[in-house]
C-alpha cells in the first residue's frame, strides 16, 4: 500500500510540476502537437502539393486529422521514454536514501503522460466528429460517396490499443532507463534513434501512397508491421478510417506489448539493485 501511495504521489508530482509557473499551463500540451500539425500540413499541402488519401470507409480526406491520429500516440511514446531516463537519473538521491521499487520513477512518468494523451485525444475526437459531419453533409449533397463515421463507437477499442501501447512504451522505457544509469550515452543515442524511428513510422505519410518498388515495399512492410508502426496503423484504422483493425494486427499488438513489457521489467529488475552504487 505504501508503494502504491508513493507511485500516486510521484505521478501527481509529474502532473503538477510539468507546467508549473506557466501562464498557459496545460494548454502547452496541446500547442506542441498543433504546431507540429501546422508545419507538416504546410509541407504536405503546399510544398509537396499532395492530396491526402481518403479514409476507408470513413471517406475523410483531411491530412491534419490523419497526422494527429498518429502523432498523439507517437508523442506519448517518445516523451515517456526520454523523460523516464532523465527521471531515473534525477532520482539518485531518492534511490540512495529510500528503499522503494525503482520502476516507480518510470511508471510515474508513464501515468502523467498517459493522462496528457487522453486529454489530447478528447480534443481529437471532437475534431473528428465535426469533420465527419461535414463528410455526411457532402454525401447528402452528392459530393461524397461516403457516410462518414461516428468515432465514438470505437472509443473502447481505442482505449484497448492505448493500453497495449502503454505496456509496450513502459517496457522500452524501463530497459532504456536501466541501461542509461550505466551508460549515459544511451540517452543521446536514443534522441537520434527516435528521430529515425519517427520517419519510418507512418505518422506523416500514407502507406498506400508508397511507390510499388523494392524500397517502397520494404518501407511499407516496416511501417505497417514494425514495433511502433503497427500501433500507429491501428490508430489510423480507428480514428481516420473508422474501422476495426484486422484481428491479426490486434493479436500482434497484444503479443508485442506483453513481450516488450516483460523483457523491460526483467532488464530493469536485474539492473536496479546496482543503481545506488552507479549513481
Query: What is the string of helix and strand elements?
Result: HHHHHHHHHHH
Which structural category fits the helices and strands? mainly alpha
Strand content: under 5%
Rounded mean pLDDT is: 85
Quick one: biggest sheet?
A: none
Overall 3D form: globular
Counted up, domains total 1
Task: Tell me the total number of β-strands.
Answer: 0
N-C termini distance? 27 Å
> Level of helix content?
over 70%
The radius of gyration is 20 Å
Report low-confidence residues grouped into runs of 5 or more: 136-147
Number of helices: 11
Describe this structure in words.
There is one protein chain. The protein has 279 residues and is mainly α. The chain has 11 helices and no strands. The two termini are 27 Å apart. The model is unreliable at 136-147 (pLDDT under 50). The chain has helices at residues 2-17, 28-47, 63-90, 92-97, 104-140, 155-182, 185-200, 214-225, 229-241, 247-271, 275-278. It has one domain (2-15, 22-278). The relative contact order is 0.14.
Keyphrases for this structure?
279 residues
Please outline what is shown here:
The chain has helices at 2-17, 28-47, 63-90, 92-97, 104-140, 155-182, 185-200, 214-225, 229-241, 247-271, 275-278. It is an all-alpha fold.
Task: Furnish the topology, listing elements before pairings.
Elements: H1 2-17, H2 28-47, H3 63-90, H4 92-97, H5 104-140, H6 155-182, H7 185-200, H8 214-225, H9 229-241, H10 247-271, H11 275-278
Amino acid at each position: 500500500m505504501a508503494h502504491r501511495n508513493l507511485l500516486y504521489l510521484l505521478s501527481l508530482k509529474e502532473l503538477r510540476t510539468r507546467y508549473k509557473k506557466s501562464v498557459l499551463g496545460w494548454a502547452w500540451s496541446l500547442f506542441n502537437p498543433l504546431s507540429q500539425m501546422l508545419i507538416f500540413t504546410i509541407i504536405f499541402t503546399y510544398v509537396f502539393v499532395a492530396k491526402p488519401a481518403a479514409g476507408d470507409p470513413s471517406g475523410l480526406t483531411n491530412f491534419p486529422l490523419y497526422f494527429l491520429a498518429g502523432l498523439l500516440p507517437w508523442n506519448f511514446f517518445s516523451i515517456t521514454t526520454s523523460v523516464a531516463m532523465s527521471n531515473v537519473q534525477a532520482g539518485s538521491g531518492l534511490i540512495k536514501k529510500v528503499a522503494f521499487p525503482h520502476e516507480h520513477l518510470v511508471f510515474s512518468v508513464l501515468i502523467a503522460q498517459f493522462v496528457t494523451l487522453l486529454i489530447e485525444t478528447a480534443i481529437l475526437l471532437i475534431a473528428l466528429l465535426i469533420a465527419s459531419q461535414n463528410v455526411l453533409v457532402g454525401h447528402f449533397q452528392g459530393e461524397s460517396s461516403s457516410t462518414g463515421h461516428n468515432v465514438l463507437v470505437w472509443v473502447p477499442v481505442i482505449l484497448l490499443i492505448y493500453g497495449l501501447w502503454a505496456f509496450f512504451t513502459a517496457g522500452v522505457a524501463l530497459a532504456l532507463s536501466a541501461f542509461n544509469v550505466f551508460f549515459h550515452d544511451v540517452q543521446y543515442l536514443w534522441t537520434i534513434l527516435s528521430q529515425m524511428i519517427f520517419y519510418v513510422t507512418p505518422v506523416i505519410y500514407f502507406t498506400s501512397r508508397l511507390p510499388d518498388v523494392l524500397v517502397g515495399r520494404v518501407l511499407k512492410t516496416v511501417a505497417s508491421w514494425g514495433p511502433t508502426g503497427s500501433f500507429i496503423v491501428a490508430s489510423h484504422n480507428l480514428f481516420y478510417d473508422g474501422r476495426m483493425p484486422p484481428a491479426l494486427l490486434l493479436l500482434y499488438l497484444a503479443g508485442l506489448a506483453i513481450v516488450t513489457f516483460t523483457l523491460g521489467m526483467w532488464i530493469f529488475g536485474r539492473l536496479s539493485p546496482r543503481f545506488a552504487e552507479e549513481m
